[in-house]
Each structure stands twice: as C-alpha cells, then as structure tokens.
Design goal:
Elements (H helix, E strand, L loop, with lengths): L1 H17 L2 E9 L10 E3 L6 E3 L5 E7 L2 E8 L6 E8 L5 E2 L2 E3 L11 H27 L3 H14 L1
Parallel strand pairs: 1-7, 1-8
Antiparallel strand pairs: 1-4, 2-3, 2-5, 5-6
C-alpha cells in the first residue's frame, strides 16, 4: 500500500512539474528599436521577476498554470503592462515588447536657463517692490532706515 501511495505521489509531482511553462522575449526601445538592457520584467503578486540581459532578452521559467499580467519597466521609460496572459500546460509564451521614453523624465537642455531666468525675474520684481516700499517709508525716517536694512539684507 505504501508503494502505491509513493508512486501516486511521484506521478502527481511529475504532472505539476510538467504543467509549468516559461515566458520569454525581448524588450526594445520604442523609438529606435535598440535593445533595452536592464529592463525589469515582473509578474505582480508573485516572486517571478527578472532583468533583461545584454541582448535585451528575458526569461521567466517554472510558471504554474493560470492567468497573469506582466509589467515591463526601465528607467526613463514608460512602464507597460500586458494582461490576460494564459499559461496552460507545457506551452512557452513569447512576448516581445517595445517601451517608449517617458517624456516626464526627459531633460530639456534649456531647463536650467529657464529656471535662472525665472529667478532673475523674481529678484527684479522683489527689488522693485522693496524700492516702492522704501519710497513710501521715506515719510517716516525710522521706517525708511529699517526698510533699507531689510532691502540690503535680502539682496
């Protein structure tokens, strides 16, 4: 009897092992089709995750049967989600995907100049405001001296 239970256990274990599949593919840059090295490929809610190799390829193995979604992410790129992936039997699945650059992370070469220009404008506005306040305060000499000290301290 123990021998039958032992055999049944191995048959069930073999069935479970055979029912696992792999998801593999390549991740590309959506703009120029370059291979993306170091992109993260993950199945949320599981421990299945990997990083693309130097050829932009990835492979997640030993995935049990079920319905999954996969996330593809890379620094400075938009994250993509592929849904309704059905893993059944011993069938391996290939998903090649391209990621587009995330425009929120692209740096405009003129950004620093724009920021400096805005700071200079703000300083000029503040200086004009303080000058007007100084002119009004000249009626009262003590107030004028205090305002002058404040203006020189700010600048």
């Amino acid at each position: 009897m123990l021998r039958y239970i032992f055999c049944l256990f191995f048959i069930l274990a073999a069935q479970l092992t055979l029912a696992q599949s792999a998801i593999r593919g390549t991740v590309y840059d959506g703009e120029n089709a370059d291979l993306l090295v170091g992109a993260k490929v993950s199945i949320p809610g599981t421990a299945f995750t990997c990083i693309t190799d130097e050829n932009g390829r990835y492979e997640i193995t030993d995935i049990p049967e079920g319905q999954y979604e996969i996330f593809f992410a890379n620094a400075n790129y938009e994250t993509k989600k592929v849904t309704d992936i059905s893993v059944t039997g011993e069938r391996d699945i290939t998903i090649n995907i391209s990621l587009n650059k995330d425009i929120r992370t692209e740096k405009n070469d003129g950004d620093e100049v724009i920021e400096e220009t805005n700071i200079e404008k703000e300083k000029a506005i503040l200086l004009n405001l303080l000058k007007k306040k100084l002119e009004l305060a000249q009626k009262n000499k003590i107030s004028a001296i205090l305002t002058y000290l404040i203006v020189t301290e700010v600048l």
